[in-house]
Amino acid sequence: MIVCNNMNNVADNTEKHLIEMFSKSQYFPNESLPSERTLAEAIGVNRCSLRTVLKAMESDGWISMRHGSSTKFNGFYEGCNLNAALKRADYIEDTISEELLKGALSSLLEITVFLIKKNQILFPEEYLFSLYNSMDSRENFVKKELTIINWVKENEKNNIYQLLFNQLIPLYLKATVTYLDSSEMRHRLKEYQTVNDKLTPQQYSFDSLTTA
């Protein structure tokens, strides 16, 4: 039974309970959920509170609700949108959370490099020098990489990419705490160096940096 001091806590805990069930694969895509009465009893809330949470989760793509029919789980990746996953990252099962965070690391780099190529604009050379000189500190590396990322973001005219950056950067910041090791930093540095034709590998001794 969920015991809470106010309605917001009831909603938060109900949502957490459901997200944990979904991320732990207790239901498969397109599988029907138990009735609202059964779910409410299992979670320990009233049906009105449960329905409010289910409506919000439907808006985020987790489930599909139809009058006169059972509520269906759409699938974690199949139905959920990025914003919904980001808002509920703390509720998600560890394996999926790891996949999301590692995916954010690689996706943000791939999108940034892609946009540099697409727009054929080179970021300032000093950004790459600063990134190279920050290799001994994860925190400094993140700060310098964000300088590059934000520069690319500010120079991108397609608003969809702007929105993607807005969603991926918070996940990236979470991911760097655990998954940004020296090997990953070398990889990212090499990707930026490769796409920026103004700088040569010899200037940075990239042979020693990238052959690990």
Describe this structure in words.
By secondary structure, the protein is an all-alpha fold. The protein folds into two domains: 7-81, Arc Repressor Mutant, subunit A; 93-210. 68% of the residues lie in helices and 3% in strands. The chain has twelve helices and three strands; from the N terminus they run H-E-H-H-E-E-H-H-H-H-H-H-H-H-H. The chain has helices at 7-23, 36-43, 47-59, 76-79, 82-87, 94-119, 125-133, 138-154, 159-179, 182-195, 201-204, 206-210; strands spanning 31-32, 63-64, 72-73. It has a three-stranded antiparallel β-sheet. Helix 1 crosses helix 3. The longest helix is centred in the middle third of the chain and has 26 residues, at 94-119. It is elongated and about 60 Å long.
